[in-house]
Each structure stands twice: as C-alpha cells, then as structure tokens.
Amino acid sequence: MNKQIEGFLGIGDDGRKSRIPAKLDLIQSGTGLFLGLFMWLHMCFVATILISKDAFDYIVHLLELRFIADSPMMSYITSFLAACVLIVFFIHAALGMRKMPINFRQWQIYRAHASRMKHEDTTLWWIQACTGFIMFFLGSAHLIIIITNGDKISADLSSQRVFNHFMWLFYLVLLFSVELHGSIGLYRLCVKWGWFEGKDAKASRKKLKTAKWVVSAVFIVLGLASLAAFLKIGYHNYSTGNWEKAQILHINNDGVRV
Predict the structure, then answer these.
(1) Is 10 left (phi over 0), alpha (psi -120 to 50) or beta?
(2) Which CATH number does the domain housing residue 61 bear?
(3) Which residue, 130, 91, 136, 134, is CA-closest to 107?
C-alpha cells in the first residue's frame, strides 16, 4: 500500500520523496562522463592512422598488451573492453530514455516550452536526444563489430571494413552523432553540476558553450580526416589487388580461410 501511495503522490509514508530518481540521475551522469572521455581517447587512437599504418597497428598491439605475450589470443582483450563499454553504453541509454517524450502530449509540452523559452540549451538537449537515438543503433552495431572482430583490427583490415559495402556512410553518420552527443553531454554535465562555474556563472556558461563548439569542430575534423585516410588505404589496396599482401583474410573456393 505504501508503494502504491508513493507512486501516486511521489512521496513515501514518511513525507519524503524517493531518492531513487536522484541516484539514477547520478549514475546517468557518471556513465555519460565515462563514455564522453572514452570517446575523446578513442578518437585520438583512431587518428593515429593519419601518422602511418604502423603507428595505428602499434597502438592496437599496445592496447592488446602484446608486450606481455605476443599472441593472437591477446586480441580477446579488445573484445572484452568493447563488451564492457557496450554494457556501460546500454545502462546510459536506458537511463537517458527516462527523459525522452514518450507520447504526443509530452512532445507538445516540450515544443511549447521550447517555443516560449527560445533557450539555446533546450535546443542542444533536443540535438543530444536525437543523436542519442541514432547512436543507440549505430553505436551498438559498431561495438558488436569490434567485439566479434577483435582479431581483425589493423590499419589494413579496418580500411577494408570501412571501404567495402559503403560502410564509410555508416561511420560518417556515427561520427557526427557521437561527437555532437558527447560534447553536448559533457557541456551539460559541467552546467548541471557546477563544474568550472567560477564567480560569474553566466560568463562561465558562455565560455563552456564556446569550448563545446570548438571541441566538437576539432574532433569532427579529426574524425573526417581519419575516415578519409582509411578510405584512401582501402581504395589503394582494392585497386592494386594488394589485399593478400596486406594480410587481409579471404576465403578460398574450398571454404578454407587463409
């Protein structure tokens, strides 16, 4: 009965509101912070392709701890880490869905609020919500690809994956969604929890917003340049028939993978 009363009134029998929403909000902020910082590190790692193929492959082997044991089995480390990120990703997405308009009435309330307020942060939240919806599908697919292909991450193999079957379109949409969602999310975390607020909150928010757009632009440009580098390598290997020399897996007519 107490639970039913709390469900209708939003307070318990002791007159206090439940702390569960606040705890869920804290978890959402924590997982968002982790994923945002991971996004930046991941982009820096991917951007090593702009240096050289050897630099990219070196970082892959470094993250796989190949300096401990130089074995292909170490690629399971990549699969394990990607699986952990996927779990955090699902938790963050599930908690984020709590605040999405789930019916037409809620959508009307949001649109009326946005029209009256004409507040840029409200628009940013809507962009974050839309990109989050896109990421739920594309981001999950990308992580599942990494989990199931942990032994096929190298400059040449990744280039083949990007170049073939127009997968570059998939990664192009994912790039913009991730960078916009992540940078907006980190900005809103700073505003929400008062990070870097300083003495003048209004001036600090303006600086944070400027920093957000600068960071978004930098990482989008870096991502586009990296995607172009993978496409260039993929096209070169394809046009020169250099797949076998590039140590890319293929299947013979008898079904044997070499």
Answers:
(1) left
(2) 1.20.1300.10
(3) 130
Q: Name the more confident of 123 and 173.
A: 173
Is residue 239 within 8 A of residue 231, CB to CB? The reply is no
Q: Residues at the annotated binding site?
A: 42, 92, 142, 181
- Beta-bridge mates of residue 257: 251
Q: Give, rounded to a whole angstrom, the gap between the first and last alpha carbons of the chain.
A: 65
Predicted confidence (pLDDT) per residue in 87-144, tens digit: 999 999 999 988 888 888 888 888 887 778 777 888 888 899 999 999 999 999 999 9
Distance CA 222, CA 9 (A): 50
Of 48, 93, 79, 59, which Cα lies nearest the Cα of 233? 48
- Residue 125: give the domain boundaries: 25-245
Whether residue 122 lies inside any domain: the answer is yes
Q: Which residue has the higher pLDDT, 53 or 109?
A: 53
- Tell me, yes or no, whether 48 lies in a domain: yes
Question: What per-residue confidence (pLDDT) applies to 166?
Answer: 81
User: Residue 94: inside a domain, yes or no?
Assistant: yes
Q: Which residues are annotated as a binding site for heme b?
A: 42, 92, 142, 181
Read off the tokens for 80.
């394990």
